[in-house]
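Handout, section B. The chain below has 616 residues.
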Amino acid sequence: MELSTGVIQQIVTCQDSDSFPNEPIVQILGVKKLTTGANAQERYRVVLSDGVHYYTSAMLATQLNDMVGDDLVNSKAIIQMTQYTCNVIQNTRKIIMILDCKVLQTSTAVGERVGDPEQLSDLLENHAKLTPVNTNGTHKPKNDVPSKPQNNNPYQQKQNNNTNGNATKPQPNYSNNNSNASKMNVFPIASLTPYQNRWTICARVTSKSAIRHWSNAKGEGKLFSFDLVDDSGEIKATGFNDIVDKYFDMLEAGKIYYITKGSLKPANKQYSTLRNDYEMSLNNDTLIELCQETLDLPQLQFNFKKIKDLEQINKDALTDIIGVVKSTTDVTQITTRSTNKQVSKRDLTLVDKSGASVNATLWGTEAEKFEEYAARNPVVAIKGAKVSDFGGRSLSILNSSIFHVNPDIKEAHELRGWFDNGGANDAITSLSGQPGGGGGSGVFKTINQIKDENMGMGEKADYFNVSGTAVFFRKENALYKACPSADCNKKVIEDNDEFRCEKCQRTYPNFKYRLILSCNIADHTGSQWVTAFQESGEAMLSVTAKELGEARESDEVRYDKIFLDASFKSHNLKLRAKMETYQDEAKLKCSAVSAIPIDYRQESNRLLEEIKKLQA
């Protein structure tokens, strides 16, 4: 395999991208993993050789890390750089960034260094002393270079330079001479670092958050964020205050923009799953312009994990997942602790070819809008789902998450084919039904097992699920009048038309009702008294605490009917069991953390899985 002799010197001495050799062939002489932060993505520096010179300042874009992991890019391998750029770093040196490449020969096939290359310095002052060379290695006098218009776009590969005759897809190009962005260089996202300050990227907005307001000791403000993608990679950008007013309405998901100037800092991986070590902050010097050209840029980039691998992902981490919705629950209303407002909630059970399933929770309008897909077993792709260890492993879809139903991507089509051609009947292990950290467990117990297995007898409370039927409710003392403050549920003391909260040390003109429902739950093995507070109690009675309180005060017949209608209905209850001592007597106290009406289709599938486990 012949190398593109002399190509490295030509790349580093180029004054513009039009002189970049097209898809040069080079040899890797070394690969070194760079030291990065704890949450940063791995990066690799490589030594490149063209047989005449070797160059130590070259790097692989992070999307090529898998090629190192698979031992394809290693010492002595020969590659073809199908996409690359060369940037100035810290105004002193040049670095070659490999954005995409093909492995032409592995190290095993080559086995030795090609030629006897000498080191080429990466310092700019040394580059200025060099005479540019052709790709055949002969010196080319500067006065022989034909004159042509200056093009400062190092990311553009000219179609007429494509020696294999294949047409290249449209790349960012400035045709509007009046554009302020055209005065800057267009860089691929993967090449951006905090050490650069004069750059322009051309990228597609894949998602945009709502405007969020914040307030702290330093003052108040607002912000929004959006994700950008181009052929080389992706990055998160955030704008504050004046930037929000200037660009929020202009930016639309799906459209392509030129973005000039901004500051880069290490990415906070706790809030972003984008494959980039940095994230961008827009400032007063930032210029954003809509791209009027038709460019073939990616729509969205995912880094999917298999469902079975969620057990190895840390709690509260964000991850990308794709799966078929095997079953769903109905929409329920819960009251959030932070705002004391009701919000819609729906649980999805996702499966994939790894033989595992996981529960994912949709919130708000997304939970309500999913009704049209609920019975169709759609494929969903989620970018930035939060991993929880409650009930084993589960996922929560945040406001910042990107949620796609039946996306037009290869992974979705493969899953659809697998599920429709027998995958729906495969044996599946539920990660949301296995013991996990944080005191949670999603395993199902019968009521008899609660006593036989001494649940709740340890130092910590035990959590488990019970599929049971409410056979009796105690109507007396089922609710109480509580402090109306959002963060306080203390019982108030009535004083004429005022209500005193001893915890808050305040008197209020009103109150709120809180449920403390005592009910007897039974299954085929026995019965158990359970206390259901607020959200779980409302789910079991199918009314709010406020509605129940008003009925108790003004309509005793309706009050009794609410309990009568709720009797002998079955629910899947997540229970907390803990032995407590009251008046020197130890009793097992079971509290309902949540209550969901039984979905008999989902319950039948669960029982079938239990039967298969017993048979195995």
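Note. The CA atoms of residues 328 and 348 lie 5 Å apart. Compare this with the example in section A.
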